[in-house]
Amino acid sequence: MADPALHPETQPLKQIAVDYTPEACTHCTNSNTITLTFDHRGGARWRTTTRFLYGTFSALIQCPPGNTTGLNFNLYLSSLEGDKSQDEIDFEFLGKDKTIVQTNYYTAGTGNREGIHQLGFDCSDGFHEYVIKWGSDEIVWLIDGKVVRKVERKEGEDFPEKPMFLYASVWDASYIDEGRWTGKYVGCDAPYVCVYKDIHVPTGTALDSSCDS
């Protein structure tokens, strides 16, 4: 069977679930746009209502302007957020430096496979396209059509293989590594609004509508 990640048939995202602070998340299906706001209420997180097993996931993202130190903005796949044995594939923006993005992936709850990539632009200056192509033997991360990282499965090594939701969130990560990861939150330019548009998910690889297993 051909690897679904190598066949990028996708469709616009039509439906989401909001895991917390729904009043800080807006979703317009007509324009295929989602906003997440971080302010005195904290942040918010949305996800697809179904899991997918492999395929191509994409969005145009504009991160918030101003001093975003301490915050984490992201687009990622996870078998279930909060599960200590999750599989996961990430794009993460680190608020202390908006000219870089971090990629990572987890298998059975184990990550430590981070990569830091120079964007060549400020992620708050307009929209840029971020794509994750996930297959049974390969993960590819692309930005504006250019491959920034490719990981191929090696014999004997674990690889993400659990069906996964597409997630995005905005949260205060100041406490991670004593602030060294994203910096310490200042909040002088709140509210911070991260905008996602033209979000696409795979065609034909959705598996279920449950988030309990």
What does this protein structure show overall?
The chain has 213 residues and is mostly beta strands. It contains no helices and 15 strands. Strands 1, 3, 4, 6, 11, 12, 13 and 15 form an eight-stranded antiparallel beta sheet that branches. Strands 2-5-14-7-8-9-10 form a seven-stranded antiparallel beta sheet, with no helix packed on it. The radius of gyration is 16 Å and the shape is globular. The two termini are 26 Å apart. The model has no long low-confidence stretch (mean pLDDT 92).
CA-CA gap between termini = 26 Å
Helix-strand category: mainly beta
The total of beta strands comes to 15
Query: Helix coverage percent of residues?
Result: under 10%
Radius of gyration, in angstroms, nearest whole number: 16 Å
Q: Uncertain regions: pLDDT < 50 for 5+ in a row?
A: none
- Count of DSSP H/I helices: 0
The biggest beta sheet reads: 8 strands, antiparallel
Order of helices and strands: EEEEEEEEEEEEEEE
Strand content: over 45%
Backbone shape: globular
In short:
This protein has about 210 residues and is mainly beta. About 0% of the residues lie in helices and about 45% in strands.
